Amino acid sequence: MAIELPELPELVPGEPPPPPVAAPSGQPSLLQTILAAAAVTVMAGAMGALFAVPPPPPPEPPPAPKSGSGPNDVVPAASGLFEMPPIVTNLGAPKDTWIRLEASIVFDAKTVQHPEALAEEIAGDELAYLRTISLAQIEGPIGLENIRQDLNERAAIRSGGKVSELIVRTLVVQ
Description:
By secondary structure, the chain is an alpha+beta fold. The protein has a domain at 77-173: Band 7 domain (Tetrahydropterin Synthase, Chain A). Helix content is 36%, strand content 16%. The protein contains four helices and four strands. The protein has helices at 30-52, 77-80, 115-130, 140-159, and strands at residues 81-83, 87-90, 98-107, 163-173. Strands 1, 2, 3 and 4 form a four-stranded antiparallel sheet that branches. Strand 2 (87-90) and strand 3 form a beta hairpin. The longest helix has 23 residues, at 30-52. The protein starts with 29 loop residues before the first helix and ends with a strand.
């Protein structure tokens, strides 16, 4: 559909301008404009009222199973989780960059009698490892995943397989 535009007369200096041309009949009238604005306002008000209604409350979680009530009980986290002391050291490169690692170890409570001694051994090994890495090795999400895997492997090796996972809680590089 093509819209035809009326030709404009050429203006000659010294002559009065031509009279204004009436609007084409396809243009909306003032009443149509007011009705359209009112309809949009009503729709906007309805959407605002819809979003003003608060969402329903979340469902309550089921009660936690009691310890010792059945064969499929969840072992409490305190029996197999030990918080390691924070490790603070400088990186291998650049030497003026410091790293702080806070982690916990997950272990089999039946096989580990003294988790604090095991955590100290693992912390010493992790400290030695962190002193050898460079800042470029731990940049980005892939670097973070790589260091997490390396720390997990070192913890498992140092403990003789008694540690199933090393959980990195905080890793700060400054």
